[in-house]
Design brief:
By secondary structure, the protein is mostly helical. The protein contains 16 helices and no strands. It is found in: Late endosome; Lysosome membrane.
């Protein structure tokens, strides 16, 4: 009888455990989706944001016979590439510099900010970003809106990757897949809605539902451990947890009369050395060990975003039935599909050779530079294939980097390591944006 009761209890416990793991995995998938959504939409809208402000500084075109407005450019632009006067890299810089600043500094102070408060900041800054860009009347106002999106995305990525160490490793796969899905959902939804006839302004209003889903996923869907520091500093919670563990060990020592009395205190003293937050010296040592992950990740993202914001706008095919703006949007969409597929691949297999992916991504960038200059690509379909491969490389590098950082870090250092390594992709993106400006100017002056 007792045996059947115990069996039933164990079965119920296993079922609850599986249910919680699935809930947490789905919650992290949604968090990844919502966290990166605004960032992706701002990049997809970059071409429209700049074109909108340009059109407001020129004379409005006359309506075409069918009642639609004729798409036009600055009359002074004689470039064969049909360029915007300002590179879309301007939007990229506004989208990445605040994120980079947060990621460079936050690992040294963010442990003093409760997770619940961080998520509320992410929610409100995302809402403000959508509203500011949708109502903007100047480039400056648009850029400020993009900066709010950057703050939301940067703080969210750093916080949710750190948060993942409190759960099973499954949630990291969910997070990676969700961030990949954000690219597809953001770029595809923006492209589809605008091409269906909605204005970019109305499209951004519709997307206000995304920050709401983020808040619900975190505060409602996630099943937190009982000791999780929701509204208090994580380091305080960890100290309390370690103190409890020490008390439990002492109780076991007292009960176990057969244990060698000289050996246990030595073990306890050894554990006590690790109680408390990481010191500055320890953090520097951890950062040094992370460089083997950060540098390849930064190189992948440098080449990746140099293509996206420096070259994509210049890969224009006048004979295509798609307008220039539509071509740019669908480039972003195809790229994001590649990212989603590779970020979801962590459920199936892992790739340790991240440096190889960075070299292949650099080869992609070099190929497309020559393609822009010599214009030897036959049609837009070839560009779609290259950009899809670019997305596959970038997504795979991202998820595998953080998977192996989690696996190779000791438990006490894991939260700090996961937060610190997020600077890799942002460094690469920031340098790529800086490099994209002179390249854009050079090609547009031809």
């Amino acid at each position: 009888m007792d045996r059947s009761v115990n069996s039933g209890t164990a079965s119920t416990s296993d079922t609850e455990g599986r249910c919680q793991r699935w809930r947490n995995c789905v919650a992290f998938w949604l968090l990844g989706l919502c966290n990166n959504f605004a960032y992706v939409v701002m990049l997809s809208a970059a071409h429209d944001i700049l074109q909108k402000q340009e059109s407001q500084n020129t004379t409005a075109p006359s309506p075409a016979p069918n009642g639609t407005n004729i798409e036009f450019r600055n009359s002074s632009n004689s470039s064969r590439y049909d360029c915007n006067p300002v590179s879309t890299a301007a939007v990229l810089l506004a989208d990445i510099l605040p994120t980079l600043l947060i990621k460079l500094t936050a690992p040294f102070y963010i442990h003093k900010v409760p997770y619940g408060f961080r998520v509320l900041v992410c929610f409100f800054t995302a809402v403000v970003s959508f509203l500011m860009v949708s109502f903007s009347s100047t480039i400056s106002m648009s850029i400020i809106g993009v900066i709010f999106a950057s703050v939301s995305s940067g703080l969210g990525e750093l916080s949710f990757l750190s948060l993942s160490v409190f759960f099973s490793s499954d949630v990291l796969s969910g997070w990676g897949s969700g961030t990949g899905a954000a690219g597809v959902a953001g770029a595809l939804l923006y492209s589809a809605l605008t091409q269906a006839g909605l204005t970019p302004q109305v499209t951004l209003w519709i997307m206000l539902v995304v920050p709401v889903i983020l808040a619900v996923s975190y505060f409602v869907l996630l099943v937190f451990p009982h000791s999780f520091p929701q509204w208090r500093c994580p380091e305080v919670s960890q100290s309390l947890s370690r103190g409890l563990n020490s008390e439990e060990r002492r109780a076991l020592i007292e009960e176990d009369t057969d244990t060698d009395e000289d050996s246990e205190p030595a073990l306890e003293d050894q554990d006590d050395k690790h109680i408390g937050p990481l010191t500055f010296t320890e953090k520097k040592y951890i950062i040094k060990g992370l460089l083997k992950f950060i540098f390849p990740l930064a190189l992948v993202y440098f080449a990746e975003y140099f293509i996206n914001q420096g070259l994509m706008e210049l890969l224009y095919f006048p004979d295509s039935r798609l307008s220039h703006a539509e071509q740019y949007r669908w480039y972003q969409t195809v790229y994001q599909i590649g990212v989603f597929v590779s970020r979801t691949s962590l459920f199936c297999f892992k790739i340790r050779k991240i440096f190889l992916m960075s070299l292949l991504q650099c080869a992609n960038a070099v190929l497309l530079v020559f393609a822009v200059y010599y214009q030897f690509l036959p049609n837009i379909s070839v560009v779609f294939v290259i950009i899809a491969f670019e997305g596959l490389l970038g997504g795979a590098a991202y998820v595998n980097t953080f998977f192996f950082i989690r696996e190779e870090s000791v438990e006490r250092e894991r939260e700090f390591a996961m937060a610190t390594a997020t600077v890799g992709d942002s460094l690469g993106i920031a340098f790529s944006a800086a490099a994209a400006f002179p390249v854009h100017h050079y090609f547009c002056s031809l």
